[in-house]
Amino acid sequence: MSEHGGNVLEMALKIGTDATNIVDFSANINPLGMPASLKAAIIEQLARAEHYPDVEYRQLHAALARAHHCLPENIMAGNGATELIYAVVQHLQPRTAVLLTPGFAEYRRALQRVGCQIHNYQMSEADGYQPDERLLALLAQQRPDCLFIATPNNPTGLMPDAKLLQAIVQCCHQYRIALIIDEAFIDFLPDAPGLIPQLTDFPHLYLLRSLTKFFAIPGLRLGYLLSGDLAAISQMKQLREPWTINAFAALAGEIILDDQPYIQATHEWLTQQRPWLYQHLAALPALQVWQGCANYIFLRCLKPEFDLQQALLQHHILIRHCANYPGLSRDHYRVAIKSAIDNQRLITAMQQVFGHG
């Protein structure tokens, strides 16, 4: 079983249908699809496939630096944010780390690969699946080598309190703890600037960004790591394997951040569809639903011994079960927010499997 969403083929084989018949709510990809500007650019520049990409990806790093008002030397692009999680852990070689649970699986896998001892900071329903001042106390007491935080969290879609997050940044700076903040979904929050403006003030701060989800290019894969520690970024670039980013992914990074109509359309879609889907899910008595701020919704099925994923598969709908997230159970699920038509189809299927309507 895949540890991530998007394993549509596996599930289609399981129920004996074609993958194209399944509506995939398990992967958090923008339903607007790849920007038209990128499709046109790829068609116009198909000949890029006939040449090696620039091994330094100079144009890509320059475009990312322009978008974020920083230096190209602050940035290392990669084959999705996942490659960069492993790159930064390999660079830091932490002996001890703190992970917030539930959280994205690849932080743990990357840390385990270097033999790091992991301390779990457990978030639960009782505390709204949010960190609080207890985390600051743990950091001051344990003094770990590094801390991973996702803003917003995956799978809950929740953002930590802004003042607490700033206190965490200060605490990690004080104790020289490497703070890796995963901002993979922050582009879906137009009012959340993220921490890129603070990079020069905090040299132990590393930010992960992804273009895969927002710009609907999971097959191309593109992410980037930012840090104020120019020596660290330079060293990671020197140690990486060459050409991990294909020519069309590099092209995507050079143009899509300038596609303001697409960015605006995405924010308008989410502003409409997130509250609609949340309200209709929350109206089902069999569900406990959390009001996140990303492009997915976290929920718990209250019906005992009920496999909601399997029940919805009979309606050719795939949602993400969260049983393999530490601290969660087989009753926890994550659903992507999709188009109005698909969201309506999900709600109709939910009503049918729970016997409402």
UniProtKB/TrEMBL annotation:
<dbReference type="InterPro" id="IPR004838">
    <property type="entry name" value="NHTrfase_class1_PyrdxlP-BS"/>
</dbReference>
<dbReference type="GO" id="GO:0009236">
    <property type="term" value="P:cobalamin biosynthetic process"/>
</dbReference>
<dbReference type="InterPro" id="IPR015422">
    <property type="entry name" value="PyrdxlP-dep_Trfase_small"/>
</dbReference>
<dbReference type="InterPro" id="IPR005860">
    <property type="entry name" value="CobD"/>
</dbReference>
<dbReference type="GO" id="GO:0030170">
    <property type="term" value="F:pyridoxal phosphate binding"/>
</dbReference>
<keyword id="KW-0456">Lyase</keyword>
<protein>
    <recommendedName>
        <fullName>threonine-phosphate decarboxylase</fullName>
        <ecNumber>4.1.1.81</ecNumber>
    </recommendedName>
</protein>
<dbReference type="InterPro" id="IPR015421">
    <property type="entry name" value="PyrdxlP-dep_Trfase_major"/>
</dbReference>
<dbReference type="GO" id="GO:0048472">
    <property type="term" value="F:threonine-phosphate decarboxylase activity"/>
</dbReference>
<dbReference type="InterPro" id="IPR004839">
    <property type="entry name" value="Aminotransferase_I/II_large"/>
</dbReference>
<keyword id="KW-0169">Cobalamin biosynthesis</keyword>
<feature type="domain" description="Aminotransferase class I/classII large">
    <location>
        <begin position="21"/>
        <end position="347"/>
    </location>
</feature>
<comment type="function">
    <text>Decarboxylates L-threonine-O-3-phosphate to yield (R)-1-amino-2-propanol O-2-phosphate, the precursor for the linkage between the nucleotide loop and the corrin ring in cobalamin.</text>
</comment>
<dbReference type="InterPro" id="IPR015424">
    <property type="entry name" value="PyrdxlP-dep_Trfase"/>
</dbReference>
<dbReference type="Pfam" id="PF00155">
    <property type="entry name" value="Aminotran_1_2"/>
</dbReference>
<keyword id="KW-0663">Pyridoxal phosphate</keyword>
<comment type="pathway">
    <text>Cofactor biosynthesis; adenosylcobalamin biosynthesis.</text>
</comment>
